[in-house]
């Protein structure tokens, strides 16, 4: 009988690769529409242990890097009406545990504390290991693993405003927000390369 091959990063410290990760949110806008945005600046580390359930994840997003593709809307989202980035410049996630999931192959549930707008609440990310590959630029010394994850939050739980009523009913921004993460972790700290190409993480 052949043994099942191990999947996912081996024990050690792995780093979020912000150049090849997408940190996406999708919200209702003007009651009937949907708008998608990202956070362009992020950093994170994953400490993988021999017992995967004891591994630790920490990710920090720059709240001011919110980007929906419309400058005026992004400025409004940064304001005190919504994220209030002057007083709450970071969005943080710190894991508290994980467990296998039956939702699909290589799936697991990642539990953690999410901090937005100065409020910290527990969340669960339905996650999946997608695959692995050498780095495109430095394949000899850098290796990456790819993950997908998603969850849903309510802005009101974190004290984030909704922009008020619109004349045809409903609120400017819906309370429910879907979060979709497409993440690459790598075994090398990305900061030297990011500085080299002029990217601010």
Automatic annotation (TrEMBL):
<dbReference type="InterPro" id="IPR036761">
    <property type="entry name" value="TTHA0802/YceI-like_sf"/>
</dbReference>
<feature type="domain" description="Lipid/polyisoprenoid-binding YceI-like">
    <location>
        <begin position="13"/>
        <end position="186"/>
    </location>
</feature>
<dbReference type="InterPro" id="IPR007372">
    <property type="entry name" value="Lipid/polyisoprenoid-bd_YceI"/>
</dbReference>
<dbReference type="Pfam" id="PF04264">
    <property type="entry name" value="YceI"/>
</dbReference>
<protein>
    <submittedName>
        <fullName>YceI family protein</fullName>
    </submittedName>
</protein>
<comment type="similarity">
    <text>Belongs to the UPF0312 family.</text>
</comment>
